Amino acid sequence: MTATEKPTTFDSLDPRTGDVVASYPVHTADDIAFVVARAREAADWWVELGFDGRKEQLTRWKGVITRRIHQLAQIVHDETGKPHGDALLEASLGIDHLAYAASHAKKVLGPKRVSPGLLMANQAATVRYHPLGVVGVIGPWNYPVFTPMGSIAYALAAGNAVVFKPSEYTPGVGAWLASTFEEAVGRPVLQVVTGLGPTGAALCTSGVDKIAFTGSTATGKRVMAACAETLTPVVIEAGGKDAFLVDADADLDAAADAAAWGSFANAGQTCVGVERIYVHRDVYDPFLAKLVAKAEALTAYDADDAQIGPITMPSQLNIIRRHIEDAIARGGRAVLGGPDAVGERWVQPTVLVDVPEDSVAVTEETFGPTVTVAKVASMDEAVELANATRYGLAATVFSKRRGVELADRIRSGMAAVNGIITFAGVPGLPFGGVGESGFGRIHGPDGLREFTYAKSITRQRIKPLLALTSFTRTEAAEKQLAQIMTLLHGRGTTIGPK
Ligand code: NAD
């Protein structure tokens, strides 16, 4: 290969060793054009199947995935390094979403009657949700099954064909999903293209009918810019800097347990992971002691039974180190871990306190097993600090009396009260963020509708009493219209002098 030639393959690596797991093709814009054209043909067949037919096919696929769940978990483990049990959990959640999407599409997207209102009382009004055609799904590596399945399953159930571009760190997971789909369904309704950023960029401008992107905020902005060229709609599921609030009346053992899981599971590489903790001053010391005790019991190391795996993307190690160093340089303290916790592939749990709120450890997504803990004088202050971010993905509140009230005041797409990340496991709940965490919703009925367009149809049932939309409209009809409007809307607050 000469310096100007582009590589035609790339390797997926085992993050624990750096060894090559497998090689995959770098798909080009031409390859993608071919795949999208195939998807369009397959989409016609898929649409013809109707909700019941698609449900049958998706259920068959679900069966294949479920029966081979350990095989899938093994590939996730090999490509991300995450513990096998965690891989199994994310695959299970992904399957649950597939089941939900397949079985709820008809009810959510089928024709629905809508009240025609008084002026159009002679009309039967219905809305139905049509598939968009071909949806491009671009996925991250941190939850390579669960995350893209939140788009793939819902887009498919809604009647679309899907072209999936998995992360370059987890191409094997994507290839496995597409090959099991092919085996179960036998048509290219779900296809995979592999490659690095430029392959994702080419998918954005390939003429697909929507892009469902999950990844970092920076890439999300590039995806939006590329999609703007062709006015391709997008759903953006991006990064976060989620806060965890501990009220004075919280169950501190449960809160510390949840905070440890939220901060350190998957080595902190979770979009809805806990990155900032705000604790009421009355319980700050005992909570911190409990959290540190939990974290001390965890070690990230290279063994199949380790609870914390490696950092999947080596370049992230520098970001994690920089955040810890900035926190400490600006007056923060590491009560556990610290800069030395960042190794060549593993990062040990790190708990930071007294970190200024404008340190990058508080303002930027760290995406590592680190967390800042801050003392607050009141829960109002905790809410204020939680909201002082450009992100807005999710949040957690531990409180006996005020949990839901506080959760509702946090500007985020999701929140868990007295639990951790539980919203992601409820298939009927929408998933997504606000601000720089993105927009649009996957999962639940909103997630199904995200991959459709609404089609409104009116049908005349009887002749209109007042001919309003005709040049035969009379003055009498106009008078009657004014009377009806006064009757309907003329009462209530008056503006100006009575
Ligand atoms: P990333 O942005 O680096 O990559 C995501 C995907 O985009 C990859 O498939 C990549 O190849 C592709 N890509 C890169 N450049 C592109 C371009 N110019 N055009 C189109 N596609 C391009 O993200 P990552 O490192 O894979 O994932 C980690 C990030 O994802 C974190 O920020 C995390 O918070 C976020 N995330 C968000 C959610 C959510 O639901 N909100 C879920 C999981 C992860």
Describe the structure.
The chain has 498 residues and is α/β, with parallel strands linked by helices. It folds into 2 domains: 9-237 and 444-453, Aldehyde Dehydrogenase, Chain A, domain 1 (3-Layer(aba) Sandwich); 242-419, 3-Layer(aba) Sandwich (Aldehyde Dehydrogenase, Chain A, domain 2). The chain has helices at residues 29-67, 69-80, 84-109, 146-157, 171-185, 197-204, 217-229, 252-264, 284-296, 316-329, 360-363, 379-387, 403-409, 444-449, 475-489; strands at 9-13, 20-25, 112-114, 123-131, 134-138, 161-165, 190-192, 210-214, 234-237, 242-246, 274-280, 333-336, 350-353, 370-376, 394-398, 414-417, 438-439, 452-460. A hairpin with an 8-residue loop joins strand 3 (112-114) and strand 4. Nicotinamide-adenine-dinucleotide (NAD) is lined by residues 138-143, 147, 165, 167-168, 196-197, 200-201, 204, 214-216, 219, 222-223, 237-240, 271, 313, 365, 367, 393, 433, 438. Nicotinamide-adenine-dinucleotide binds next to helix 6 and helix 7. Residues 5-457 form the Aldehyde dehydrogenase domain. The active site is at 237.
